[in-house]
Sequence to fold (735 residues):
Amino acid sequence: MPQSPDSPPERIARIALDTPLDRLFDYLARDATEADIGRRVEVPFGPRHRIGVLLELAEGSDLPPASLKPLGAIDRHTPPLPTDLLALARFVADYYHHPVGAVLATLLPPALRRASAARRPEATPAYRLTEAGQAQAASLPARATARIALMERLGRGIVHRADLPDREKALVRDWLRRGWVAAVAPAAQMAGAGRVVAGPELTGEQARALDALGSAPPGFAAWLLHGVTGSGKTEVYLRLVADVLARERQALVLVPEIHLTPQLMERFVRRFPGYKLIGLHSGLADGERRAAWLDALEGRADIVLGTRLAVFTPLPRLGLIVVDEEHDGAYKQMEGMRYSARDVAVWRGRQRDVPVVLGSATPALESWRNARAGRYRLLSLTRRANEKAALPAVRLVDSRTDRPRQGFTAALLAGLGERLERGEQSLVFINRRGYAPTMLCNGCGHVFPCPRCSAHLVLHRNKAGYRLVCHHCGLTARPPEACPECGGLDLRAAGQGTQRVEETLAERFPEARILRVDRDTTSRKGSFAVMRDQVEAREVDILVGTQIVAKGHDFPHLTLVGVIGADHALISPDFRATERLFAQLMQVAGRAGRAERAGEVLIQTAYPRHPLYQCLARHDYPGFAEAALKERRGADAPPYVSQALLRAEAGSEEAVMAFLQAARQEGLDLGKGVTLFDPVSALMARVANRHRAQLLAQCGARARLQDFLAPWVALLRELPGAGVRWSLDVDPVDY
Ligand code: ADP
Ligand code: ZN
Fold:
């Protein structure tokens, strides 16, 4: 419709869309008003319609009015994204140099990213135990631990469907049919205030930590709660959350792993019956995630417990943020928008003026330094909360004198044998899944590379026999009969993986019940919970596992931890490898002796005098951290410098290198006092036949690096580079 000369020009709506283009898109605003800012809108984009978020209204556009299209439907059923979340999205977009539309797309639940999702969602389904169900609970056989646990949970209060793992959903469906549980009407879910069940009497250290937190002026502060495993950090979080609930505010609690949510959820449910607790992680079905997210956005949820993506949950009454196991690498998203949920949590706390508590037994060196420099306030728990559960004794087994056979030293085998006799549980920790890291020709020493990646194939074993598998591109092949180099027939497994360790143990201890826990055995949803129940029910004597088992689990009957193959990390070219190893070993050691019986940790190593192991044996994180920080300072490495890594990949090495050389030249021309290293091949230089290389930008001051990155990224977007895909990783943690 042509505009008459005296009618006011139509307003423009600026929309954030999930595209690689770093700008907003202008549309004619139609009837949109200020109240629609933050709402999802449907807009024509190319041949299709897309969902975007309305971010701004303006009086004019730089584009000719005739080229502008009108907005489509505005979703006014769902509350708009709150202003603080929009501001956080913009901040994150600026810091990570990621388009704001893509940031907003990451933060919305998938069900709300789709054009069809403007309908009013149903309320979250929830369940309670009926009288028939209560009668049933008493007659369940004692070995039905999973069913008993679920019954008990339902008996304590309403349970939301979104909080149930698949296995339990199936149980609830069955019980609904039998009349043991009933669905609860949505209104009932909101009725009735919650209660706080009393916790244990605080230890002196816990009381002091809570006093410090409680007597601080209200508002933002970042706290680092450094507490040895089992020192009662979670109890501190629970007390803090109770305070927040008493003030009718919401608490956001982040955990690194989806496996850890059910266990922690249990503790929170038990402590805060009647309060609305939601779990938010990528394992939820789309509908559940949308429902949980809306519960948070509309202020119904009191506590949100979730993995890294939950850091972006809209929380109108936010009063506290907790980041548990803050050092964990899982807080860093490695793809797409590469953000650190821990850092975002701290920014969010500052923005909302609420305290942030970072907890760990082995804080990230970044956080430790922030605490040392006074930017974070340090709280320490140096002893286990349960007086009878002393920290485990760590023994270093010298593998040069006690030579391992099939991976095991005599000392470790003896330790495992003793535990079996006493009916106690053991854990053998080896951070390599598969049967063996490589296959080797005993005639000529040939090892088997992946034809598409710069990596060796890993030997796996399943029912059908042996397989060679690439852990990078997934290629799977049957092992050859003869060596392709020399024709020799003596092909052997070289080194140890979880499957081979399991096999060796089964031969050595035929009567032992052995359970292997690694990514191959836990890939199915819910299977991890089943394993945990088996261990708790003492149906397992020896656990064999990768770092998956190291985290946060409380196994009271576990008294021995054996560590195999840890030395690999000491010679890694990655400067963060030792920090990760120390954290992993502290975590895994922390699994031993959680109850009354003392725990023991045996670490097989050829370097028993290495400072890392020495600190570990003393449970001395501060000692390790001081030494590691000194090393980092000497090497001009983070946290003493800020870094950004430009990664690129293409079909040919020449194309990647040419792109990175050009990128470096553009950066040098900007001349902002940032060091630009030469482009180098990535550690994994070839994956699935794509060549990967990278260029590191580094600077002593974070702000100065940011000043450089903004114009640099704009130039990079203009660089020709046919077939080159690139991305920028600000504060990278893997190289
Ligand atoms: P962390 O999170 O530091 O590993 P947890 O909070 O899980 O430690 O506590 C370890 C164990 O000690 C748990 O079994 C917990 O119930 C118990 N616990 C924590 N605080 C206390 C306390 N003040 N008194 C008695 N037991 C406690
Ligand atoms: Zn491969």
